[in-house]
Amino acid sequence: MRSFFLLLFLFAAASLRAGEAPAPFMEGNTSFVAGENAAAPGDAKAAYAAAAKAYREALAQSGGSWAEYYNLGCALARMEDWGGAALAFERAAASDPLRPEAAENLALVRKAAGLAPERPCGTLERVATRVPFRYLLWTGAAAFWGALAFLVLPFLYGGHGAGSIAGALLCLVLLAACAAGLFGWHLRARWEIVTSPDAQLLAAPDPRASLVGKPAPASGALVLRREGDWVFLRTEGGMEGWTKDGDIEPVWKK
User: Within a domain: residue 117?
Assistant: First the structure.
């Protein structure tokens, strides 16, 4: 796993040119390489921690890019922070699903955490989220206005012909496909990631309540309701219970 993460890390680091990357991002790259070359495990861990801190600073400045989330995931994976790494790779994959590296590393992180390589999801979510959200949004908007034009403009020029009807039908089909894709992204956005290794599922929103189970770090969860700083959730394995809000984080920032 070590060589795999390093190979993809270098690929991600090259994706931001020095003139475009925030200074903390470049500092994170330097710290990550220092961790790779460190002789002592303690020195390596400290370097990876510094890299993760720098990548988080870069994310705070830029608002989030694929390379920043991806490199953060690599640094956290080196630290064996499986929950944090999974969240970072999930966010990288969501920001640019056309790049497969984040999904591949996410599968490795989930396996290292004792989970199946892929979080369970329906066919619509799996297929739709292979296309960037913005592409679906732009194409859907263009299809909507195209259908409107094919339906309305012919009335100004003598009525509908075969061409205008075919064009309207094509735009409506494309609009329906985009709507289905956007709904697939909605399904994905409901998932949150267990980031704390100490997360527990309790029978009630009370630290004295009986233990239901322990969700694995890096696993997915659906939040069913919130009560103060507690959330009632269903894990990808089917367990339900209450946990502290800080033990999970959404893939899509709210």
Answer: no
